[in-house]
Write a structure and sequence with these properties.
There is one protein chain. The chain is mainly α and 206 residues long. The chain contains 10 helices and no strands. Helix 2 packs across helix 7. The longest helix is centred in the C-terminal third of the chain and has 21 residues, at 155-175. The radius of gyration is 19 Å and the shape is elongated. The N and C termini lie far apart (49 Å).
């Protein structure tokens, strides 16, 4: 991405990112057409490559754009005040689910990224996802009350399992062609949280 792209209006930038999310979300990376992305964005392919240099850069920049949107949607003053692990992860996850379902392009692209394998971008994407999860844990969970956990429980592992379960559920529903309902996934997530809480918290905190 170069200076010229940053000088575009926010609306035009979003139009290009939306086109990239739509196409990359529908097709695996190697089959995603930059011609189609350019057409949907209303720009020439040459101009698209002028902005992003190549297909891989466009993909990675789109991933960074989506990550910022999700993080901005989740982060607020209240989040950093929560000290109970399961209350915090429930609050953050429900906000994430809401923005994913309200923005189908973001959801399908995010799921495609999460399950990217054996493609040109897979290693970089999985590294970014792993780094992002670790970074978020360090920031958002720094004030949790660790004394509530049993001595042999690692809260960070619980966090990673819940993230994988949530994204796995979204992926499963998508692959089955089912519409993803907020109430249904919230119901599932509430059950997962209750299960992990009963396993990992000391009895007096359950």
């Amino acid at each position: 991405m170069n200076k010229a792209f940053n000088e575009l209006s926010k609306e035009k930038q979003q139009t290009i990112y939306n086109a990239a999310m739509e196409v990359f979300g529908e097709y695996e990376y190697k089959r995603a057409s930059t011609d189609l992305i350019a057409s949907k964005a209303g720009v020439s392919k040459g101009l698209l490559f002028y902005y992003f240099h190549n297909k891989k850069t466009l993909y990675m920049q789109t991933f960074e754009y989506v990550s910022r949107i999700i993080e901005d949607a989740i982060s607020d003053a209240y989040l950093l005040e929560i000290t109970d692990f399961f209350e915090l992860i429930t609050y953050a996850t429900k906000k994430k689910i809401k923005i994913l379902i309200e923005n189908p392009y973001i959801m399908y692209f995010s799921i495609r990224c999460f399950y990217s394998q054996k493609e040109e971008v897979s290693n970089e994407i999985q590294t970014e996802i792993s780094h992002g999860k670790d970074k978020k844990y360090d920031i958002y969970f720094k004030n949790i009350e660790l004394n509530k956990f049993k001595n042999d429980v690692d809260p960070e592992k619980i966090y990673h399992m819940l993230v994988w379960m949530t994204d796995g559920y979204l992926h499963s529903q998508q692959m089955k062609g089912k519409q993803i309902e907020i109430e249904e996934i919230n119901k599932e997530f509430t059950q997962w949280v209750a299960m992990f809480k009963s396993i990992s918290y000391k009895e007096e905190f359950q």
